[in-house]
What we know:
Layout: H1 3-19, H2 21-31, E1 44-46, E2 61-63, H3 73-84, H4 93-118, H5 128-158, H6 173-184, H7 193-220, H8 228-258, H9 272-283, H10 292-316
Antiparallel strand pairs: 1-2
Helix pairs in contact: 1-4, 1-10, 2-10, 4-5, 5-7, 7-8, 8-9, 8-10
Amino acid sequence: MGVKGFVEGGIAAIVAGSTTHPLDLIKVRMQLQGEAHLPNPSLHTLRPAFAYPNSGFSATIHHHPPPPPRVGPITVGLNIVWSEGMSALFSGVSATVLRQTLYSATRMGLYDLLKQKWSDPNTQNLPLRRKITAGLIAGAVGAAVGNPADVAMVRMQADGRLPVSQRRNYKSVADALTRMAKSEGVASLWRGSSLTVNRAMIVTASQLATNDQIKETLIKEGVMSDGLGTHVTASFAAGFVAAVASNPVDVIKTRVMNMKVDAGAAAPYSGALDCAVKTVRTEGLRALYKGFIPTVSRQVPFTVVLFVTLEQVRKILKDY
C-alpha cells in the first residue's frame, strides 16, 4: 500500500466530511447547549429594597432564569439558517477538509498498513482483536496529527451561537490557527488533545474494525456477495456502533476545545475530567449523550459515504 493507502483514505474522507459537514455542525451546537459558564443576556441583578442606604452596604440578588428548553436537531438547523443564513451550515468546512486530510488520511492509511502486516499470509484474514488494536493505534496517531484542525473546526462551527461581541470571526482555518497561536500560544492548537486521541481511538477501532468484520462475515456466510449492498450494510452498522461508543468523549472534547480563556481569568474547565464532572453535576448523565441524534445522523452517512467512496477510489487508482 505505502503512500497509496493514505491518499485513497484521504480522498474518501474529504468527500465524506464535506458532504456531511452541516450535520456535524448541528451536532456541535447541540453538544454545547446548557453550558453553565456561558453568559446569559437574560441574567440581571436587582438591588433589594432592604439595602442600607447610608451604610455603604447593599446586597445583591442574582436572579437565574430557568435554563432554555432543549431543542432537537431539526429545530437547531432551522434556527441556524434563520438567524445566520444557509451558508452558516458550512461554517468551518475549510477546517473539516484540513482535518480529514491530516486525521483521516493518517488513520486509514496506517490501519491498512497494520492490517497487511498482521494478516495471515495464507488466508489474508485478521482476527477481530487485532483489527481493534490496529484501529486504536491508527486512531491515536491520526488524532495527534490532526488536533489543530479539529480545534479550529469546533470553534468555527460554534462561533455563530456566541453573542456578536464575543465571536471570534475566523476567516478561514489558516486564520484560526494563526490567531490561536499568536493570542493563546502554540500549545492551544493541541487543547483537548487527550480527548481527541481517546475519541479517535474509539471511533477508528469501532468504525473500521466493525466495517471489516461485518463485511467479511456477510461474504463468508454467503448472506451477501462482495458488492455495493454489502459495503453499505457494513458501513451503516459501523457508523452506528462508532456513534454510540464515542458520543460521551465527543461531548467533553467539544466543550474543552470551544472554551474561551480570557487573559488573567480562570479557564471554565481545568481539563477533561473537570469538564466531565461539571457537565454531569449541572446537567446530569444524559448530557454526555447530547447531540446523539445528529451524531448518529452524521456518523452513519459519513461512514457509508467514506467506505463506498473508498472502494470506488481504489478501483480508479488500482493501476497506479
